[in-house]
Amino acid sequence: MNRRVTSNDVAQAAGVSRATVSYVLNGRTGQGISAATRDRVLAAARELGYTPSTAARTLRRGRSDLVLMLLPPEPLGRALAIIIDAASEEVERQGLRLVAHRLPRQGGAVSLVHSLAPAALILVTPLPEPELAALADTGIRIASLHQALDDPLAPDLGIGARQVQHLADAGHQRIGVAVPPESGYAWRVDVRLAAIEDACARLHLPPPVVARLGLDAGEAAAVVGRWLEGPQPVTAACAFDDEHAFALLAGLAAHGRTAPQDLAVIGAEDIPLASLAVPPLTTVSVDARSLGERFARMAMAAPDTASELQGSGAGEPAEPALPPVRLVRRASA
Fold first, then answer.
1. If DSSP states are collapsed to H, E and C, what string results for 255-318?
2. pLDDT tens string 63-73
3. Are residues 173 and 281 in the same domain?
C-alpha cells in the first residue's frame, strides 16, 4: 500500500521548511513568504497529491472543517432534504463540509458538538434551554431560525397562518386540521397547530378541529366522514403537508364528494405531484433551498455581518425577509 504523503514530503520537494508548508497550505499571511515560494509549495502539493490531515488540523485549530446541522428526530422529507442540499453547497463554497445528523429524542447535542468540534452549528430542531446555553458556552457560531424570526411561532415558517388566511378569505368558518400521528413529527405538529390556532383566534374563527391521520385511505375516509356529517360540519381543511392533503382528497372520493365543493383542502410544501392532484392542490410553497442557503450563511457569517444576514440590523436587510413561503392557488381550495 502506498505511504500517505505528508507535509514533510511537500517541504522536501519544494525545498522549504515544514513551517513554510503549513503557513502556505493553511492560507496564513504575514510570514514574509514570497509569491514564488508560495507557488512552489502549492505546485509540489499538487504534484504529490498531498491531502492535509483533518485530525491534525482540528487539533491545531481547536475546530474542524465541519459545519454540523442538527435535524429533528423525524423522517427526512423532501423539504428537509432540499434544505440540507442547499446548505451543503453553500458551506462547500467556503471550503468547509456539512455534516447532517438526526438528533435522537433523548438529546445529546452537547456531547456531539464537543466530539466533532465543528466550525459552526446549524439548528433545524428545537433544543432545551440548558443545552442551548451549554452550546453557546462553546463559542461556536450557532445558526437557528430563532435568530431570524423573533416569534414563538417561527419554526412553522408562517405556513399555518397562510393556510388559515386563505381559507378565511374564501368565507370558511369551521376549519379542520389533518396532522400525522407519529411521535417523530411531534415538535413540528405542535408548532403547526399552535400557528393555526393563533391564526383562527386572530381572525375570530372557532378553534380548529384536529384529526391525527395516517396516510391511509380508510383513515382519511373516516376523518372526512366525521367532519362532513357532524353537527357543525367542517368546510375546509389545512393539511400538515401535501401528502396528507392527498389523503384527504382520497377520503372525499371515498364518499363520492369533491374539493372544494364539499371540503376545501390546502396542503403545504408544494411537492411536484401537487399540481397533478384531482383537483390540482392549493398549497403553501416553502422555498427550502433559500432557507438552506440562509442557514449556511448565518452559520458562517462574521459577527459584524450576522445581523444583516438575519435582516434584523439597521437599514435595509441584506437578504429577502423570512419566512420564505408563498401561497400557490390551484383548484382544491
1. CCCCCCCCCEEEEEECCHHHHHCCCCCEEEEECHHHHHHHHHHHHHCCHHHHHHHHCCCCCCCC
2. 578 999 999 88
3. yes
Amino acid 83: pLDDT: 93
Q: What is the CATH number of the domain that holds 237?
A: 3.40.50.2300
Dump pLDDT digits (tens) for 166-188. 999 999 999 999 999 988 888 88
Task: Give bridge partners of residue 179 from the DSSP assignment.
Answer: 212
221 and 195 fall within a common domain: yes
Q: What confidence category does residue 258 fall into, taking pLDDT thresholds of 50, 70 and 90?
A: very high
Residue 2 counted as domain residue = no
- Among candidate residues 94, 265, 85, the one with its CA nearest the CA of residue 163: 265
For residue 308, give the amino acid letter.
E
Residue 75's nearest CA partner among 159, 185, 157, 155 is 185
For residues 187 and 94, what is the distance between their CA atoms, to the nearest angstrom?
A: 32
Cell 507557488 sits at which residue?
39
Range of the domain at 213: 154-286
Q: Are residues 212 and 251 in the same domain?
A: yes
pLDDT confidence bin for 145, thresholds 50/70/90? low
Question: Cα–Cα distances in Å, from 92 out to 79, 97, 296, 305?
Answer: 20, 6, 10, 20
How many H helices and E strands in the chain?
A: 14, 10
Residue 327 lies in a domain: no
For the whole model, what pTM was predicted? 0.75
Reported as a single tens digit per residue, the pLDDT across 87-136 is 999 999 888 889 999 988 788 899 999 888 899 999 988 888 888 889 98
Unique residue bearing C-alpha cell 379542520: 176
Q: Strand, helix or coil at 326?
A: strand
The answer to whether the CB of 24 falls within 8 A of the CB of 42 is: yes
